[in-house]
Write a structure and sequence with these properties.
2 copies of one chain form a homodimer. By secondary structure, chain A is mainly alpha-helical. Chain A contains 8 helices and no strands. Chains A and B meet through helix 5, helix 6, helix 7 and helix 8 of A and helix 5, helix 6, helix 7 and helix 8 of B. Chain A binds a DNA duplex through loops. Chains A, B: GO terms for molecular function: DNA binding.
DNA sequence: ACCTGAACACCGTTCAAGT
DNA sequence: ACCTGAACACCGTTCAAGT
């Protein structure tokens, strides 16, 4: 339901309620129970639409590695488009229907690159979990801005990671590199996992 | 607060409320507001204790790769010990104090293995996000059992991933490998990321 | 000065009452 | 047969009233 997504995006998933949606649609809060058995079922449907978003446009070029990168990059983009909803993807098992086309695309590219089924399973699952972990951690940042002052305040200053150097010498050597660019950090992680994909 | 953790573990984080904790402790629900400003602050404290759990006992042997593996394996174990609380780790930024000792240990081992700071930052963040994504996805499974019938029903049959073969040929080749062993799948992903760590 | 608990403004969901 | 909305059993949090 597009209206529900709009309420989530403008006020945050935390502020979403049947009463809020009813107010947005000028109808009784209990009217939604004819279309969805429960509030959770409605949220699951929203999450599934995010998981499916853009999967039909994934490329299949002659470079399987690039196609795989595009897949997970696009998943990250879709999740970050709805930052307060993003954590709810963990409610959906990786085997749920919404993931099928997306995972089929990724596994097909791994196969096309000459990887055997067992390795492909490992690499696919590693890529998926890495992407979810990285992206949900980014989404939390964006979500805080939305939940605080409504949608629109995106792209504020990024919180710096700055531990006390005397307590954690090795970590503070590395801290300047940690948050300098979320997108390139994400892609670097993907490449790390894909490093020796056969070609 | 150990009592709050007990309430969360027995009935699930979803059923945790100030009133439930008050009932467990035989006191007024508003009494907690002297120790924690808000319910969220209390949950954050619980999450931080899970992140810190066991970090003092992490090994420092002559094998940095094994020590890194032990670090993230132990994080996974701590998160899975409180499956309904686990998703709330996403409320805490990776730069929060609770992560310092743990990330310092990991970065120190990467450094000891001869990795330069920029690479160490990439690999550390990749390992952390991969671990969070993988473990939170596992935790969801355990959490469902707890929230349904109270703690104790752990280790029930694992949901199989079984997509319709005609629709997703590449994926269904791989499906039998996907969920066969969570722990070894997790470790395989770690090794994939650590594959060419200098030694 | 400290503590308690009544009260406020919510919430998801049900189901009796209306049409 | 269908729809509505009053009502139930909650919730986090505040703050006036007690000690």
């Amino acid at each position: 339901m597009a209206a529900a997504m709009e309420v989530v995006d403008t006020n945050g998933a935390g502020a979403f309620s049947m009463r809020a949606l009813g107010g947005f649609l000028d109808c009784d809060p209990t009217a939604m129970y004819r279309h969805f058995a429960t509030k959770n079922a409605l949220l699951d449907a929203l999450v599934d639409s995010v998981i499916r978003d853009g999967v039909a446009d994934l490329p299949e070029t002659d470079d399987p590695r690039a196609d795989i990168r595009a897949n997970f990059r696009q998943l990250r983009r879709s999740l970050l488009a709805h930052p307060t909803l993003a954590p709810l993807v963990l409610r959906r098992p990786p085997g749920v229907g919404a993931y099928w086309e997306r995972s089929d695309h990724a596994v097909a590219q791994l196969h096309r690159a000459g990887m055997d089924p067992a390795d492909a399973a490992n690499v696919y699952q590693t890529l998926l979990f890495y992407t979810l972990g990285h992206t949900l951690s980014e989404a939390r940042q964006l979500a805080r801005a939305v939940e605080k002052e409504g949608a629109g305040a995106r792209g504020g200053p990024v919180a710096q990671v700055r531990p006390p150097a005397e307590l954690h010498p090795d970590l503070s050597d590395v801290a300047p590199h940690l948050r300098e660019d979320n997108e390139s950090q994400f892609l670097a992680g993907l490449d790390l996992i894909l490093r020796d994909l056969p070609r």
